[in-house]
Amino acid sequence: MSQYLVLSKIELQNANAIAGFTWGFPAITQFLGFTHALSRKISANYEGTYNTEFVGCIVVANKVSNRVYQPKPYADFEFLQSKNPPVLAKHKKDPPPIIEEGKLNATVSLVLELSDALLLTTDQVTEFENKVKAMCNNMRIAGGSVLSIGKVKLFLANTAQDESKQLLHIKRLCMPGFVLKDQSEYLKMQTEALAVESIESAPLSAWLDFSALKVAATPELAEGQTLPNDQTDAKWQYLKKPFDGYLVPIMAGYKAIAQPLTKEEVLGLRVKPDPEDKDVKAVTFVEAVHSVAEWLSMHKATQLSDYIWRYHQNGEWYLCQQQSKSSNDDNQHLTNTDLFNNLF
User: Fold this and answer.
1) Whether residue 176 has a cis bond before it, omega within 30° of 0
2) Taking the CB of residue 278, how many other CB atoms lie within 10 A of it?
3) Rounded distance between C-alpha atoms, residue 269 and residue 280, angstroms
4) pTM of the full predicted structure?
5) Which of 2, 95, 219, 286 has its CA 20 to 30 A from that of 29?
6) 306 Cβ partners below 8 Å, 6+ apart?
7) Interval 147-194: pLDDT, tens
């Protein structure tokens, strides 16, 4: 038995466009954060009525428009900036500063996985969908404001035939769009291939093979010329990525860089431990973890469970993945430390 809640065609305004060392789309952690926040709201407002929680999320991008501009042809794109708070008459002598940030407007569809199926009547299902839609309109997703939501639909499948119909209906609600697929295995394979030449720079080089736009020059030797020189013409060619597909770099979670600390050691914590348990650790410092994912057209999805992002915690790793793994190693995910150690 499987049950999913579909939030189709959510229009977002001013959502976060920067995630770790990447930009262009919010981090997966932000969508899972919204999933967790919505689950807690339902539990708090309707305790005992809906005995379930949202444990995973499928992310489908329908339309993305980054708020950027190009100062001149062939120049790098730059984010549009604004003064916050807006300039008022009293700010003429002392205007507010520009806080650099990256924003985007987007239309996304989310498919939330339920931990326990809700056995509701038709009227109760409609009531639940309306309640969820009202909650989402007052929430933020990836830091952006929710302008509108197309449809909110709850689907339940008991048999293989029901799952086939369920998949068809969900695909129709989310199309046209691209679903994000975890391809951290590609990063691992490319790292192992480059480690033959240089073990130290392999993680960074492998990740850049997926994230950087690379071209190579092929010398056009003149007649009788065996080696190129400063005057030799060259033909520039685009270097393909190691694997086929619409592959992109992503921020995939966090890795702890310090021991857990209590509220007595770090003042001003927003999340406090259980007062009845003095041994509960409250917070730890972390760094971003980067990986590789692929955008696939939604019509190619054959099984929803293959595209559900879930949190997986293993020791110092706190990752967003689409399948459980017994262990997480440095070859599958790249941390900020890996980047800095290789860059500087």
Assistant:
1) yes
2) 8
3) 14
4) 0.84
5) 2
6) 181, 322, 323
7) 999 999 999 888 888 888 999 999 999 999 999 999 999 999 998 888
Structure tokens at 332: 């599958």
| Length of the chain, in residues | 344
Of 146, 180, 157, 168, nearest in space to 252 by CA: 180
DSSP state of 215: E
Structure tokens, 16: 């976060």
User: Domain coordinates of the chain in residue numbers?
Assistant: 2-176, 185-293+313-320+327-343
pLDDT tens digit string along 233-259?
888 999 899 999 999 999 999 999 888
Q: Which residue has the tokens 């760094």?
A: 287
Around Cβ 162, how many Cβ atoms within 10 Å? 14
User: Which pair of structure tokens corresponds to residue 187?
Assistant: 């990063």
Q: What is the DSSP letter of 236?
A: E
C-alpha 21/C-alpha 335 separation (Å) is 10
pLDDT in tens, 90-106: 666 677 777 788 999 99
Comparing CA positions, the residue from 150, 147, 134, 103 lying closest to residue 11 is 147
